[in-house]
Write a structure and sequence with these properties.
- By secondary structure, this protein is α+β, with helices and mostly antiparallel strands.
- The protein has a domain of about 80 residues: Arc Repressor Mutant, subunit A, CATH 1.10.10.10.
- It is about 50% helix and about 10% strand.
- It is built from five helices and three strands, in the order ααβααββα.
- A hairpin with a 2-residue loop joins strand 2 and strand 3.
- The chain is elongated and about 50 Å long.
Amino acid sequence: MKKIKTNPDTLSVEEIAEIFAALGQVSRLQIVRLLLSAHPKGLPAGEIQQELGIPASTLSHHLDKLRNVGVLDVEKDKQWLWYRVRADILKHLIEFLFAECCTRNQVVAPDEILPCC
């Protein structure tokens, strides 16, 4: 699998499908939700591991997968690796899902998509 582009506006349908596939795993979805709760600062890998109880090697695999599809950014700070959610990518996924329902058949009104945020 190639690394996903960093510009969400240029994502192809195939790349969006890869992102959804990566998010379709329980641990990865838990990681993203946890990191969203710590947005925009993010969390160090050790704190993610402690919070979710995922073994280090397994966590590393999941973090790499999420990073490769563009959902996470990582930054080294001294001896710590800090992971952050790419909110722009997640926003693009939501926009992709709701694009047709808000225009073609009005299943959801555009102003109802993210009222909680």
